[in-house]
Amino acid sequence: MVSIKRLVCAAVAMLAMSSVARAEDGFPFGSEMTLEALPQAGSKRIPNIEIGDHGEVLLELWCKGGKGQFSVAGNTVIFVPGQIQDRNCPPARAQADDDLLAALSSVETWKRQGDVLTLIGPKSLRFRTTGN
Length: 132
Hints:
8 strands
């Protein structure tokens, strides 16, 4: 016969595993992520976002940088750009930054699979967790 102690241990283990699985698939608050894209000609830079614990965002785009805010409810997401620094960008990079900000601002939903966050809107954007 199975002991009560073994049943309790099994239940605790299953609960712990389901919590880890949910955390891996949740919105990546407290993460730094890099856009899945190739660098632009003449540059090694690829846009990245640092998402704070409360949705605050630090952006480093193709040339410009700035701040923003994610608001998340279930699988719905809204991105609101804040102050963006124009860093005397070449016209092509400035336009790429403006296009990326417009795409971020128009996302409606999100999904996460492992270390990949997909922001879904008229143009889907894929970001991969940076680091560990």
